[in-house]
Write a structure and sequence with these properties.
The structure is a single chain. This protein has about 950 residues and is an alpha/beta fold. Helices cover about 40% and strands about 15% of the residues. The chain contains 47 helices and 27 strands. The chain is globular.
């Protein structure tokens, strides 16, 4: 341990981490840059920040403040000590609805503040697309704006006061003061007094009034223009957008604005991007709150992802671009009138071929989901190291110049042979144009620089700005001297030296920056050693390429919607997000001996809390499949360290359950005897706090063999996969499924031998899983009938993991193509009148709360299950957005994971279930989900098929 690390651990209440993996996780943000820091500190209080700055200054080490790490220009990477405010300093200290202000710590997330303000009819004005993970501290450092900036301006317009740590480790409170108060503060001693004393001299320089670009939407340079404006002397406003180079904010008072009660959206359909941009003028004439562009690149990508595919179902035809025009207010009739006025104006002027009217929240849901995910979807179009890069993506010009400006921009790209995705805020002349560049290819770095220089000149030609909301960072700071002129740039350098004479605070940003071509992530990556995987990774770069698809946009750090990432939601640690794990794997797989690196215990610790829910496969716009990556990694860890007994036991769950059923009821005794539970914990690490499943001697297969002949089967044969759980521990569910299929007119063939290999795979026993998959595929290949099952994780393994286990087996692909959702078959039969559900049954007319299985959500979605439940007469079906249940198969049984498992369930699922009256029926497709609900609420959860079976006429 070095002197600095020892000093920090002694002085700081928060965690101090200097290990190689933590340093690597914080070497990147959502930009194209990477710089490995010396260490990372997670402050718990403002005093920790002062202690870090003091220690760093004494050791000549920089300090880099960081929120969610979603910066696009490289603001939050740098050498020295990274301060991560997101883990602990995320409290809303005070919210005053009367004054319309909130006092927040820097780690507060934008959506978190908006949820707290919403009951008072308020919200934070700037609306970024990253609102579900962007921190207020990061927004202040960056001067963020968002889609509503035409109405609400930028973050700088909403900051009232700041508590800050200065470069000498002293603290200060900044806010607007009159001249008398400024003079009083200037008369004191210390750095804060110097600022109040000397900044007016810098502001008095004539360059301040002549050097700034005319366009208002600016997030570059230091805002000396604000200090020069008439009114109070306001250092809080001045340091907004300074990217942590002048001060480090530890608390902020921010203004809130009235939250509109209604939003309506006009979605114009256009045959080209330029045609959509040309329609912006008409949109602005109708006083919208936002005008957003989305091009074909993003539209096509949204159609390929389950999470976003619903957008395609509501569009008219095949538009090349969309223009989203939002109208907000309290009077819906007035808003709809404005929407229709715009639609009529577009028709009159020949703009577009269709306008979709989205008036209700339900109609808007899929639109907003894709709009907020445009960046991630665009990133997904990258392949290998050819990525849509952020280096000219933040320019802005006056909207009236946008058509001509973008046409010239496109010509620059054409000259250099580059393509790009177009999206962004037409209402304020800001388009996020991201050219596809492969920085690992010879000559591409030079091409990128040439494009950046030409675009910079084009922006100046139209009186625009190079940085309009994403900041300068490493991507654009180099050009500030030319953009602002020598005199104004010199004034900005004087500001930096006044605030930070030793260059401690995030050096190399805004002024005195390195060339934009230094510290490039892809251009400087080491060449990994040779490595063979057991699973097939069909992306450029194999397993390493699969992990390196992560571009750190941080959607896995969201906390109140969706499933991804359940362990991060419980711990708020970077290493427990999909992004952290992916970056850790990139580090390991970049080593000279990747196989040995995959056995590293620190890497194993980073991956340990991954529940393998597979949510990242669908919710991460780049489709990073961490479950698959963990499966492969565990197999190499076992090669080096051996296979733990518990992994062997859980990997053989079908054999274990079969044995348990054969010896029932004796096999159920260990679950009820405390001594035996304690022995199980000691021998296998299985927690004694969770009930064990109950085995049934008369299981599904024995019932199927012993029952009478089924009736006619006009719909033909279907193969029913008798999984390890609904066969031996919940046979009633399997019986319900078989009876429903037969009543629907199917001839059911029970496939009760063999295992999909899911349990083996989850424990890294890939070779065993491969053998099981090959055996089951052979059994299923004797027929060409549809394949269905009750347990999503098992039947969907045939569609996904089996193909990775058996990539060259055409039989595996054929089997995958025959997998159907049982709910689809039953719904078809109900709609055809072959299966009749009765209103005179106990499930009919009931409220049903449905929780979908994570693998189901990731692979096929839950629409078929929800649709089937809604066919029960009078049923009111409410689908929970409650994330992962936290059980995740064996994970919740493991002693060291039990508390986290319960914390994940307690986040949203348990409260939602407990809030329902006793008359509400709880439904869940997954066996683990039902176990977790029963243990954590406690309420009994039914499989949806049990409810449908009970609703059949005649029972």
């Amino acid at each position: 341990m070095g002197d600095l690390e020892r000093r920090l651990k002694a002085d700081v209440a928060g965690e101090v981490e200097f290990d190689d993996y933590t340093r690597h996780l914080f070497s990147r943000d959502a930009s194209m840059y990477s710089i490995t820091p010396l260490g990372v500190v997670f402050p718990r209080e403002a005093a920790d920040v002062s202690a870090v700055v003091a220690a760093a200054a004494e050791h000549g080490v920089p300090v880099v403040p960081r929120g969610a790490g979603t910066s696009l220009a490289g603001q939050t990477v740098g050498p020295g000590i990274v301060l991560d405010f997101s883990r602990h300093l995320h409290r809303i200290v005070e919210l005053d609805p009367e004054a319309r202000v909130a006092r927040v710590q820097p780690g507060v997330v934008q959506d978190q503040l908006n949820r707290a303000a919403a009951p008072h009819g308020l919200m934070f004005g700037p609306d970024t697309s990253t609102s579900n993970r962007a921190t207020l501290g990061g927004m202040i450092g960056n001067n963020s704006a968002g889609s509503g900036s035409v109405r609400h301006g930028m973050t700088i317009d909403h900051v009232r006061e700041l508590s800050v740590v200065l470069s000498d480790a002293s603290t200060a409170r900044f806010g607007p003061v009159d001249e008398a108060e400024r003079l009083r503060r200037a008369a004191g001693s210390g750095l804060a007094a110097r600022l109040h004393r000397e900044l007016p001299d810098i502001v008095a320089d004539g360059a301040i009034t002549s050097g700034f670009p005319e366009f208002w939407r600016r997030a570059g340079g230091y805002r000396l223009d604000r200090l020069a404006a008439p009114g109070p002397f306001d250092l809080a406003e001045f340091v907004v957008g300074s990217e942590g180079t002048l001060v480090i904010a530890t608390e902020a008072v921010v203004g809130l604005v009235p939250k509109p009660r209604r939003t309506v959206i006009a979605v114009g359909h256009f045959t080209s991007t330029q045609a959509a941009i040309a329609a912006t003028g008409d949109a602005l004439s109708c006083d919208p709150s936002g005008v957003e562009l989305m091009d074909r690149t993003i539209l096509d990508l949204s159609r390929q992802r389950i999470e976003y595919a619903s957008l395609g179902t509501i569009l008219d035809g095949d538009p090349d671009a969309l223009l989203f025009v939002s109208f907000t207010g309290d009077d819906e009739d007035e808003l709809v009138a404005r929407l229709r006025r715009l639609s009529a104006r577009w028709r009159r002027h020949g703009h577009g071929y269709h306008t979709l009217e989205a008036v209700t929240p339900a109609q808007q849901e899929s639109l907003l989901k894709v709009r907020k995910s445009s960046l991630g979807l665009l990133m997904a179009a990258g392949e290998g190291t050819r990525r849509p890069l952020a280096f000219v993506e933040d320019t802005a010009v006056a909207p009236e110049h946008l058509p001509e400006y973008t046409a010239k921009f496109a010509k620059i790209l054409d000259r250099h042979g580059l393509t790009a995705g177009f999206y962004g805020h037409c209402s304020v002349g800001c388009l996020h144009i991201r050219p596809f560049v492969d920085l690992a290819e010879p000559g591409q770095v030079a091409t990128m620089r040439a494009v950046a220089e030409e675009v910079k000149s084009l922006v100046a030609e139209y009186g625009g700005v190079n940085s309009s909301e994403h900041g300068d960072g490493l991507a654009r700071s180099e050009f500030n001297r030319e953009l602002f002129g020598e005199d104004l740039y010199a004034a900005m350098c004087r500001v930096k030296h006044l605030f930070d004479p030793a260059g401690t605070l995030n050096p190399g940003k805004i002024v005195e920056a390195p060339p934009m071509t230094e510290h490039l992530r892809d251009a400087e990556q080491p060449v990994p050693g040779p490595f063979r995987t057991r699973l097939s990774f069909e992306v450029v770069g194999g397993m390493r390429g699969a992990a390196d698809r992560c571009m750190n946009i941080g959607l896995c750090r969201k906390s109140t919607t969706g499933v991804m990432c359940p362990s991060y939601m419980a711990t708020t640690r970077e290493q427990d997000a999909t992004r952290g794990r992916a970056n850790a794997l990139v580090k390991a797989l970049s080593e000279p001996d990747p196989k040995a690196a995959l056995g590293d215990e620190r890497l194993h610790e980073v991956l340990d809390l991954c529940l393998m829910c597979k949510a990242c496969k669908s919710e991460c716009p780049l489709g990073v499949d961490m479950a698959k990556l963990k499966n492969e990694t565990l197999s190499h860890h076992h090669d080096l360290h051996g296979v733990p007994l518990r992994s062997r036991v859980f990997g053989s769950i079908r054999a274990l359950n079969r044995l348990g059923a054969a010896t029932a009821p004796l096999s159920n005794l260990p679950g009820r005897i405390p001594l035996l539970r304690r022995l199980a914990r000691r021998a296998l690490g299985i927690t004694e706090h969770r009930p064990l499943p109950r085995f049934h001697r008369h299981h599904l297969a024995s019932w199927f063999r012993g029952r009478g002949a089924a009736g006619p089967a006009p719909r033909g044969p279907v193969l029913f996969l008798a999984d390890s759980f609904t066969t031996f521990t919940e046979p009633g569910i399997g019986r319900a499924a078989v009876e429903l299929l037969e009543r629907a007119g199917y001839e059911v063939h029970l496939v009760s031998e063999g295992c999909c290999g899911r349990s083996s795979l989850s424990k890294g026993l890939v070779d065993d899983a491969k053998a099981k998959a090959r055996d089951l595929v052979a059994r299923l290949s004797t027929s060409d009938a549809p394949i269905v099952g009750c347990e999503p994780s098992c039947v969907l393994t045939l569609r996904d993991e089996s193909l990775s286990l058996l990539p060259d087996d055409p039989a595996a692909r054929a089997v995958a193509g025959r997998v159907r959702q049982l709910e689809e078959l039953l719904s078809e039969a109900i709609d055809a009148g072959d299966l009749v559900l009765s209103a005179d049954t106990w499930p009919a007319g009931r409220r049903m709360l449905f929780h979908g299985h994570c693998h189901q959500k990731a692979e096929v979605g839950t629409a078929a299950t929800v649709g089937l439940l809604r066919r029960i007469p009078g049923a009111e079906v409410v689908e929970l957005d409650a994330g992962c249940c936290g059980m995740a198969g064996s994970f919740g049984f493991e002693a060291e994971h039990y508390e986290l498992s319960m914390a994940v369930g307690a986040d949203r699922l348990f409260p939602a279930v407990r809030a329902e009256p006793d008359t509400t029926l709880i439904a869940a497709t997954g066996v683990s989900c039902r176990q977790q609900i029963a243990h954590g609420t406690p309420r009994a959860a039914h499989h949806p098929l049990e409810l449908v079976r009970a609703a059949i006429t005649g029972g």
